[in-house]
Amino acid sequence: MTVRVSLGDRSYDITIENGALDRAGELLAPYAARGRFIVVTDRNIVPNQLYRLETSLTAAGIASAVEVLPPGESTKSWAMLEKLTDALLSYGVERGDTIVALGGGVIGDLVGFAASILKRGCRFVQVPTTLLAQVDSSVGGKTAINSKAGKNLIGAFYQPAHVLIDPTTLDTLPPRETRAGYAEVVKYGLIDDADFFAWCEANGAKLLAGDPEARAVAIAKSVGAKARIVGEDERETSGRRALLNLGHTFGHALEAETGFSDRLLHGEAVAAGMALAFRFSAAQGLCPAENARRVTAHIAAAGLPATLQAAGVDADGATLVGHMKHDKKMEGGRLPFLLARGIGQTFLDKQVDLTAVEAFLDAERTATA
Ligand code: ADP
Ligand code: ZN
To answer: Where in the cell does this protein reside (predicted)?
Structure first.
């Protein structure tokens, strides 16, 4: 199926198809009319998925070069950006060429940013290979690297020319990475689609076990929601796109506390963050306690952390709120929070009292799901 992201002259299609990677030569042929392809990927993807793309491009007669980077968050650095742009320039990249990001969010974010600045903008195509990248980061044009001051602080909005999603690439993804990506799937239900959250409760286990049909439904639903929200608010100015940050402010504090390391993956932090956002909303009398319980239960049932303890975080409220204050969404000393009036009823609250958040997190320190 095809989902369109409608952004005027920056509009593009997202193709979702089992086996799309083996048909990439055919599906991406229009971009080969005037130039070559340069595929950028990471070392873990080489043995698992790269050969499928290369075979398909070769069969379609599309010339391609490959640049392989080390895996992991530390690849989103100035040093790697320099290495990558130097490599692309040494290939003699031209405006008619297409840069293909084959990988998870790390590759997508770095390659997208490199494409945005290389020769003031080169065409790039996203071929996401993690569940997180397929349902979230490959769509919408956010690109970035990290700096000493924090994650994703250097970057640009730069839309891809096409997104090619092949759910079968997830067959080789480690289960922990699949679970982490699933948190962002659940997020779309919690934001504004209670029926989809109920679908997740009924089908999440199947999806996590690799059921192709459940996986395809979840990806299509998530991508559709993301494309719609991005079409309404490309640059996060109206508040619509901000809804996608549900669970991310609490989550960011947990990631900071665990050093943005493998101790807690981004999706795991978001899972705990969404459970915390719902319990905080319930504690504030905004949301029925029963809804917060359902959210907590589903996250835990998916094998994701729903509490500070499960996330491996032992810190007081003041410490965690201290991390939140470094969030790039801080506005004049206030931090906008995504809270909920219920499942599928997320809203942006710009008036949250950080001392209430602190007290809530102190009480959460010993909570278990
Ligand atoms: P995310 O997409 O969550 O931001 P990364 O880009 O860091 O995460 O990818 C997570 C890990 O999974 C990395 O170690 C990456 O090399 C690996 N990986 C990505 N896609 C696949 C795949 N399809 N099969 C196996 N490993 C993969
Ligand atoms: Zn996220």
So the answer is: Cytoplasm
